[in-house]
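Researcher: Structure prediction, please.
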Amino acid sequence: MSLVISDDVLNSARMSAPELGAEIAAFLYERERLTLAQAARLAGMSRFEFQRFLATHDIPLNLDASDLEQDLKSLRVLSRL
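Model: Predicted structure follows.
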């Protein structure tokens, strides 16, 4: 599904399409409607870029045990490099 937002709306909001996409993704993530990975994809960012975006907007991470396990696996792989 695609969502079309007119240039008039973007101009009125003083935002670019990628900025609006990131804001929508952050909104949905904050309300726990999307996971971190899903919201990052919607925003067109890597997970780490999206985490930085959330931090600049004072939105805390909603992490669960599976997120922690994934992060620990990533750290183990990185520590071997």
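Model: The mean pLDDT is 92.
Researcher: Thanks, that helps.
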